[in-house]
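Entry for the shared binder. Reason: the reviewer on the internal report wants the predicted structure included alongside the sequence.
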Amino acid sequence: MSVIGLARSRADLRDRLDALVVGEKKSGGFATAKELEVVRQEQISEIEEARQDPAQLAFRRLEQLRSPWPKDDPRATKSPADEIAALKAVSVADLAAYHKQFWGGGHGEVTAVGDFDADALATQLTSLFGPWSAKAPYARMVDQAWKVAATSE
């Protein structure tokens, strides 16, 4: 899920929303390998820092025991090493392909607060997101309860 915060005056809301949505449709938020590398290094630094925190490691392990999804499942709680390896493996082309296949305006929510014209905003959002749909249909990933044995780890 993407969450985008946008604080604008009534006068420039329309133009800013147009620019934001057009940019997201085109790039998915990553325009260059340099930008991806910045985000990658930030994420790796956070993981490395969490590796030093016993509480973080304990919560991670508890989640792995509580929900033992297979390693290749997106719901799996990966080890720090696996998470870092996955981050290092991602390319701009991978992100572009994912964006092209799965991003669209077909499912989402908009919350607007403040001084704006509700009808004009609804019309604008319909024109921006209406024709933009993902190639793959949206489907929520189903969670499940796991039967886990007691452990003294």
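Summary line for the report: Residues 23 and 29 are 7 Å apart (CA to CA).
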